[in-house]
Design a protein that fits this description.
Blueprint: H1 3-13, H2 21-39, H3 42-58, H4 63-75, H5 83-94, H6 101-129, H7 131-134, H8 146-171, H9 179-191, H10 199-218, H11 229-243, H12 253-263, H13 273-288, H14 293-299, H15 303-330, H16 335-340, H17 343-346, H18 351-371, H19 383-393, H20 399-426, H21 441-444, H22 448-455, H23 461-473, H24 480-497, H25 504-515, H26 521-547, H27 555-563, H28 568-583, H29 596-608, H30 615-639, E1 648-650, E2 659-661, H31 663-677, H32 681-689, H33 692-696, H34 702-710, H35 722-726, H36 729-740, H37 748-761, H38 765-771, H39 774-783, H40 788-794
Antiparallel strand pairs: 1-2
Helix pairs in contact: 1-2, 2-4, 3-4, 3-5, 4-6, 5-6, 6-8, 8-10, 9-11, 10-12, 11-12, 11-13, 12-15, 13-15, 14-15, 15-18, 18-20, 19-20, 19-23, 19-24, 22-24, 23-24, 23-25, 24-26, 25-26, 26-27, 26-28, 27-29, 28-29, 28-30, 29-31, 30-31, 30-36, 30-37, 34-37, 36-37, 37-40, 39-40
Length: about 800
Amino acid sequence: MNMIPQMLKILNDHSEESLNQEDWEDTLLKFSSQSLLAINDDDWLEQLTQVILEKISFFNEDAKEKAFLYKFFGFTPRTSKNQNLVKRMLSSILKTAHEELLEREGIAMTFSIMSVKHLTLALDELTEYSTILTNKDTSSILKLMKEHQQREWGLVCNTIYLSYNRIILETKKAISVHLEGILTLVLQHYQDCIVEKDKNLKLDYLNALTTLTDLLSSLSIICQFHSPHKLKIIAFLMELIKEEPVNAISSSLRQKAMNIITNLRQLKPLLQPEERAELLRTCYRSVLCLPPAEVLQKEAPSPKEAQTVVELLRETLQSLRMLLEALIIEMPTRVQNCLEYLDTWLNSQKDHERERAMWCTARILGFTVKMNNFYTEIEFSRLGRLVRLLAIRCQDPVDNICFLSSQAVYNLYCILLLQKQMGRKKQGLWEEEGKSEVYSASVFYNNTFKIAKAFAEYFTQIQVSTLVLMAMEGLTDSRAKVSLAAAQLMSAVMKERGRDMIKIEEVVEGILERLNSQLEPSTKAETLQAMCSLAGNNGEVVVPMLLSRPLPWDRTILAIWKAFGTQRETTLNVLQLLISILEKYHPNLESQEMAFQPVAVTCALCEMLSGSLCHEAVQELYPRLLISVLCHLYWVIEQNAPQKMVVYSKEGVPGSKSKPFDPTSCALEAVKLVILAAEYEKVVVYANEHRCWDLLSCPKFYYIGIMELTSNPWPPMSHPSGIVKNCEPCILHRILNHVRNLLYSLDNHWKILARAFYAQLLWHRSVAQTLGQDFMGNLIKWIKEPNLIMKEVGL
C-alpha cells in the first residue's frame, strides 16, 4: 500500500483550509478502489455498500460529505464482476430519499460512476425504475395522498433525467447506441403518466427534459444521430404550447417547450415543410398574442410579481428568437418560411402584436446576415409581398415598429446584396466600386422611396406586380401614415420598374376603384403620381383603357389625365400616343357617325395641358401636336355634332358651375391649350380679337380660320400676325417640315390644313428663303386644281 504514506504526507502538509477537497476525494476514491480490488470479496463488498447506504440515509450535517458518500457508493462496485450484486446496489440507491436536489444529484452521480463499467445495467435499472411513473399497478406514487402525488412524480422524473445526464457526460460515445431508447422513454413518461397532469407536473417534467436536451445539444456526436422519436416529442411539445392561454403568461411552460425544441435541432430527421409551418404558427400565436407588458404588470397582484411576469415575457420572447435561429441553421434556404407566417401579426390592428412580429422579422433577417452563408442561394419567391409589408411598417404610427422595420429592411437588402456579390464572384465578375448607392437602416427609416429604389433590381416581373397589387390594398387604410406609405411605395416601384409590370389592366382598375373612394389628400396625390408613372411606362395599355371610359368623365378620370401632365417623360409618352390616335384616319367619316376615341383624346388634352408642368413636353412636340388637333377639329365640325352633346366639363372657380363642352368646343379648347402650353399666349390673344375661333368652328370657313391663325387677317394685310409673327424661326421650320409631307395627302382634311399653313408660312422670310423658287411650283399646281378652296389657298 504505497498510497498510505502519500496520503499521510498530504494531510501533514495541509490544513483543513488549504487542502484541495476535490483532489483529496479523488485520492480517497482511488485508494478505496485499489483496496476493494485487493480484497476481492463480494460478500464483504455488499456489507460495505449497506453501511454506506445507511450513512447516506441518515447523514444530513455536511452537504459536501454526503455528496462524497454517493461517489464512494458508486465506486465500490466497479471492481465487482457480479452482475446481480451491481443490480441490487443500483436498485438500493434508487430507493433512498430524493426530496433534496443534493440527494437527486447524488443518485445521478452514483449511476454515472457505475455506468463506466456497467453501462447497460445502469440504463436497464433506470428503465425499470421509471415504471414508477407510468405503471398504475406497481407504482408507489399512487399510495401517497393525492395532493403529494404530482410532486413525487416530478421528483422521481428529475432523478431519472439527472441520472441520464450524468451517464451521458461520463460515457460520451458509448451512450450513443442507447439514445433512441432514452428518447423513447422520455415520451412515454409523459404520455403514460399515472397522475393528473397539472401545471406543476408539466413544469417539473419540462425542467427535467430541458436538462437532458441541453446536454444532448452540446454533444458533437448528436448531429450524426437519427431518432424517429424527435418528431413525436416536438409534436407533443407543440400540443403543450397550444394548451397555454394567450391572454396571460403565468408560467414558463411555453418558454421551456420552445427551448427543448431548440435543443433537438441537431437530431435527425429534419422537420418537413408542413411540420415547420405548424411549429411556427403554433409558437407565433402563443407568444405574439400575449398581452402587452404594461397590461401584464397592471394585472399582477403585487409589484414583485409584476416584475417577475415582465421578465418571464422577455425570456419567452428570447426563447422564440432562439428557436427561429435554430430553424434557420437547420435549413438556411427556407428563411422565407419563417417570415411568411408572421404576416397575420405584422398586419395586426394591435400595436404590441405588430411590434413583436417586426422584432421577430428583424431578428430572423439579422441572424441570416450574420451567418454569412450564401454559397447556397436563399430564395425569396415572395419578395414583393415582403418588401411591401416592411416598407409600410417603416411608416407605422408606432415609432419602435418603424425603427425595427428599417432594421429588417436593411438586413433583407444585405442578404440580397451579398447573394448577388457571391453570384458575381462565382461567375468571375467583380462589383465596380462606387457603382451602387450605399444604404443603411437609418436611410430606410421613414423613407419609402429609398426602399423601393434599393430593391427594384431584385424583383422579378411577378414580384413587381404583386408588390403593387398588395400596396394598393393599403391605400384605404384608416391610418393616414400607412395609406400614404402604401401610395409612396407603389409610386416609387412603378417609377423604377414600371416597364416590367404585368397585370396592368388589373392594376389600373384597382387604382381607379380606390381613387373613387375617400382617400386622404396626400395619399390621393401620391396615387395619381403612381398612375402617372404606370402610364409613362405602359401607355399603350393604360391610355386606351382610360379613353374608353364613358364621356363626360368623372372627377377621378379627369384628375388622372391632369396628373399625366405633371411628369415630363409621362407627358411626352402619353402625348405621342394621343397624337397618333388623332393622326389616324377617322373610320366613321363615311357613315357620318361620331368616332368616340378622337373626341376622348381632346378631352384628355384639355386636362393634361391645363397645368404649367407640361409646357416643356408640349414645346418638344408642338408642331405635330398642334396640327393633329387642328385636323381633328376640322373632322369634328363636319360631323355637325349637337351642341347639347356634353363630352367634357371644366371646373370653374369655387362656387361657380362647371362649364360644359360639346365635341367642337372641346376641340377648340384643346387647340387654345396647345398654343398656350407652348407659351404663345399672343397667338391666342390675336385669335380672340379676330374671331379666329368662329372661323375654325365653321366647315365652310375652316381653311380661312387656319390662315388667320397662322398669319394675318383675311384678306392679307401688309404685316404678318398670329403664329408666323410670334413663333421662332426654328418652330416655323419644324411646322414647315411637318406640313410639307401632307401637301398631297389622300385625306382632304390633312391636305387643306397643310396647304393653308404652307401658304401663310411663306410670309416669313427665312421660310421663303429656305424654299427658294420651289414653292412657286406648288402654288401654281393648286391654282389649277378644280377645288375652289385649293385655288384660293394657292392664290
